[in-house]
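Subject: Re: docking follow-up (S-adenosylmethionine)

Dear J.,

Thanks for your patience while I sorted out the input files. As discussed at Tuesday's group meeting, I've set up the holo structure prediction with S-adenosylmethionine included as the bound ligand rather than trying to dock it afterwards. The sequence and the ligand SMILES I used are pasted below, so you can double-check that they match what you have on your end before we go further.
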Amino acid sequence: MGRTEELIKVIDTNINHMISLSVLHLAQLGIKYGIFKIVAGRPSYSELLSQIGVPNKPLLKRLVEHLKGLGIIEETPNSLILNGFSYELKFPKEEYMLLLPDWIPIFEEIYKMVDFALISPDHPYVLMDFDKDADFWDMRLSSSFHSAYRELVLRLSGLKEGSYVLDLGCGSVSPAYFGRFIGEDGRYLGVDYSPALLEIARARVEKMNLPVELKEMDVGLIKPRTSYDVAIMTFTMEYLTNRREVLRKVMDSLNSGGKLVVVDAFRDEFKNVEALEFFEGLNDSFVGFPSRAEVKEYILGEGFDVSFEEHGKSVLVVKKL
Ligand SMILES: C[S@@+](CC[C@H](N)C(=O)[O-])C[C@H]1O[C@@H](n2cnc3c(N)ncnc32)[C@H](O)[C@@H]1O
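The structure tokens for the complex came back this morning:
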């Protein structure tokens, strides 16, 4: 297996396990907060919510909705009922080598945050805000899972010395990573709306003296004036409500032959991704993972002449013709 194929498998396998552990943790929350016990008595939705003594009822409702989404709880016209549920955790032996260890402690922290978020969405122990909790996000974005997909983007995008690169929702780690490969004649523009994450990114690129430009703005507001060879959107789309508009602007900004690389936990590819969404939803801006079909549909709907390459379950490369 070549390095590119290996990276694709690493990313898909680790997302799959992030999802399966999320399913188990959701079930654990159902037991821990007495949800299953109460639902066994066939309560109405409002009876269930009022019987569980947590202050943050909107999050409790979201938890119940996700348990419904997984098929553990069912809503009938008058009551909630329990469905039998079984879940198979698969560890094919050829995947052991692909498992990355360092996202586990990060997810352990995120699972714990649910208890505090059920007290209050603004509880200081909930560390999912891009600005307030930039250090936690920076730890997360520095893990080997995130490094793996950056290397994959590098391989699939054709990014090289002299490339013009636009990275939307660049975060704190990608600018210094990609900035190393573009050389003196290249240009990397990272756009992000989090001043705290950009500050961390800026400190890194300045230390390495890289030709990187960082812009603090909402990606929905970009008006690219330069033409780019490569555009990057890695785990950004799930925070955007205006995906079609952003994709139009990005595709407009690409040279012909230029490539947009999207890496995400595409919801039409990963079964039970809703379980992971429950935990990611502790960040207020999270709106849900995109589907690969949706991204393609928006780009074609905007009339762009493109070719698509799908890699594994989590990568889409769009080449502008
Ligand atoms: C999960 S992080 C991914 C960061 C980076 N793409 C990476 O893969 O390392 C999502 C990033 O998108 C940024 N973001 C989310 N919505 C945004 C928006 N509407 N405009 C600009 N940045 C946004 C966040 O601040 C955060 O840095």
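A couple of observations from a first look. The radius of gyration is 21 Å. The pocket of S-adenosylmethionine is lined by residues 130, 141, 146, 169-171, 173-174, 191-194, 197, 218-220, 234-236, 239-240, 285 (CB under 6 Å).

Let me know if you'd like me to rerun anything.

Best regards,
T.
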